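Budget justification, computational time. The allocation requested in the original proposal was used primarily to generate structure tokens for proteins on the priority list. As evidence of use, we reproduce two of the resulting records. The first is shown immediately below.
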Amino acid sequence: MTITGEFIAFLFLAVSAIAGGVLMLNLTKVVHMVVALVFTFISLAGIYVMLSAEFVAAVQILIYSGAVTIIMLFGIMLTRHNDHSETSGIGRKLLVGAGILGFAAVMYFGLYSLDLGTQPSADLHVNNTEQIGVAIYAHYVIPFELTSVILLVALVGAIILARRDDEEEVKEEATKE
């Protein structure tokens, strides 16, 4: 196996994505978790660029790193949560570490024995943005629009839940006086 610049870039992006995911799981403050998740999303976008899927990389950055992260931050700001961090014992950390190593071993041996067949055709990456657009708007218009409606309903629901909590607080303060 020869080590190329593409291989080094892939390793860097893959390790960055994994590190962001591990940080997201191990950090205690919710805002820090969201930042680690953004780090993972951007690393995945870099991997998509390496796979000649520029449109998917742009969507990854715009939608996931931008919109979904902002919605998560709105959800955090609009809802109340107790920030009680639990200390996990050494046994739990060892169990999680063993699970991670087991998953990594299964993925390694599964990918190592994978046969991908022949090389793809040369015109696979030609006009991939146009091909994706035609597929979305010709065959998947309804699921595409339903996704935006679901995101809007989730945002409105978070606002309603936050408003109810504020009204309950006002009622409780009025009864105390």
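The second record produced under the same allocation is shown here.
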Amino acid sequence: MLAYLPPNLRDLQLPLRLRLWDGTQLDLGPQPRVTLVVKDPSLVAQLAHPSLDALGGAYVEGRVELEGPMSEVIRIGDALSQALEDESDTCQISRTPHDKDSDAAAISYHYDLSNDFYALWLDPQMVYSCAYFETGTEDLEQAQQAKMRHLCRKLRLQPGERLLDVGCGWGGLARYAAREFGAEVFGITLSRAQLKLARQRAKDEGLARQVRLELLDYRDLPQDGRFDKVVSVGMFEHVGHANLPLYCQRLFGAVKAGGLVMNHGITAKFTDGRPVGRGGGEFIGRYVFPEGELPHLATMTAHISEAGLEVVDVENLRLHYARTLEHWSARLEARLDQAAQLVPEQALRIWRLYLAGCAYGFARGWMSLHQILAIKPYEDGSHNLPWTRADLYR
């Protein structure tokens, strides 16, 4: 059966073992750390030029099995794809039209999977975004608390101020801002599962009067400048390139003059926003974040500026997100038996690849994570920000 394998596979020196459907094995290098079990004979031809999308899709669909640490699976899979990629292949840029119905469906697909499943591998507050490692030695819970504190400090949040949380998730940041900084928080989400749990947690913590959470599309935000501050975490990735101008305009209209707006989200490596190479971005779009699109930092800051906001600070947390994802992946891998009781087998396969793959991708600079702080100036162009960042770190 080895005769059916593409000849270029034999020239590789990777710690990978191939096991075919008839039990035949081939080691592609010494001391294999990962075994790729090919169950579908039709897959063999694809191994001549295996993209990450094709390899990942075959695993999700059960056409192959993977044996070994998931972090090694991702590393070796990328090396295999890179060594055998077809240089004539080009990554096609596609733009998806986003409307309220399609965005709601995409959000539901991703976030309504199972609250209990997410709780297995997120921190106790279920903060599903990049953590902040002040020293690099923090555990996940400490780093997520530090991230929320960092955001609130950047916003110079004060007791009694009205904070808009766009894409509030399970409400971890909303509750933190209310509890630790005394803010009055209005949060919005399109996920019914998130909203139900977030409301219950606010009630259980005695914060129901300070934290109001609603099922609302960002396009329907009030435009009367009623909020003192705005925070949006992990949100603009879902908006789509075509709607970024409208999204920024809605944030501008929601915040009062002199108010701060914080955008925290994943940004593309390439200025044209094309996904990462060798099929990784296509896999995420197909199985994880339908209709998700990553803007480059330059694109995002341009739209923020054109909406009338002034960018006053930018921080790259790419390596922070790599470490956050390493924590998430390790926590999921340690609880696979429990996870298998909560979500379908295919969903669990997707998430194993997604978390480990994104940890690898962020570590290698395939995409970044930027916090972009902007302000809505007064009519005369002035604002009341401190002259330096020193107050953030006291």
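A brief technical remark on that second record: The domain at 100-393 is CATH 3.40.50.150 (Rossmann fold).
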